[in-house]
Amino acid sequence: MRIANLSGRLVIVEGDHALDVERASSGAFSSDPQGVYARWEEFVGWATSQDASSGEPFEASALGAAIPRPAQVFAIGLNYASHADESGFEAPKDPVVFTKFVSSFAGPDIDVELPGDTVDWEAELVAVIGTGGTDISEDDAWSHIAGLSVGQDLSDRTVQFWGHPPQFSLGKSRTGFSPVGPSVVTLDEIDTLADRSDLSVRCTLTRADGSTEVLQNGRTRDMIFSIPTLVARLSAVLELLPGDVIFTGTPAGVGHGRTPRLYLRAGDVLTTEIEAVGTIVQRFAGRP
User: Fold this and answer.
1) CA-CA distance, 153 to 235, in Å (whole number)?
2) 80, 222 in Cβ contact below 8 A?
3) What is the per-residue burial (b if ≥16 Cβ within 10 Å, else e) of 274-283?
């Protein structure tokens, strides 16, 4: 099952059709795309009997952030050894955790204004908590995941590296810097298409002149801390809440790690694709 945020309303998506949840359930479930996680197990029980292909056709540009207002956002830094290496750090022994403020959350097909000339890309698999809790074991962690989505951890490197030591969250939370979507895909659907623990993560840049370059091409099996490990380690410190989001880290290939460094420019188009999960697109423009 794929659930999404269509013009601010919760829908179940099948191909290019979307079934409005509130209307199809005669009001049993709210139209709020974020609120569904508080009733996740009940919702799944109802939704599995629905035919989303009977819904209305929709345009991708009408999709909002698949998870629009999570209570907590956990972003994991340096979670691929290759990315830690290109960033000049040793692979961490414990998860490196920061946040992306929810005002930066955006839909999967958007225009983004560049605030400066040091904006970078970071393709990431996003995990969404369905059932919260504390002290969740790794063996039980997948049962607490509602589904997976595609995210970009866009980063203003100038702001990120203000001062010593650097701080991450502000530079990664400008308007439109946390696109997530196009939907939240439940694990049972992913399992019919791929191995949930070994998904390809691919990020491609198209320049204004039409030239293209694959920027990142990794696999989630190379995470230092897997999704079950992250759930266990985070929940050992605090309570995970339904609808919380985990940006699970990015593989090698970011612009800041190159020589010479490479950043996004006006006219660029960034396409991020994760196997069995989906594709998101951002188009970049300069400030007026």
Assistant:
1) 23
2) yes
3) bbbbbbbbbe
With a cut of 50, list the residues of the chain below it in pLDDT.
none
Beta strand extents in the chain (DSSP E only): 2-6, 9-14, 17-20, 56-57, 73-77, 96-98, 105-106, 109-113, 119-120, 123-129, 145-152, 155-156, 178-185, 200-206, 212-219, 245-247, 269-274, 278-285
CA–CA gap between residue 169 and residue 104 (Å, rounded): 11
The DSSP bridge partners found for residue 155 are 120
Q: Enumerate domains of the chain plus CATH numbers.
A: 1-63 (no CATH), 67-285 (3.90.850.10)
Torsion of CA 238, 174, 219, 195, to 10 degrees: 60
Angstrom CA distances, 186 to 1, 123, 214, 216, 235, stand at: 6, 20, 28, 25, 21
Determine if the pTM surpasses 0.85. Answer: yes
Helix, strand or coil for residue 242? coil
The CA distance from 67 to 45, in Å, is 20
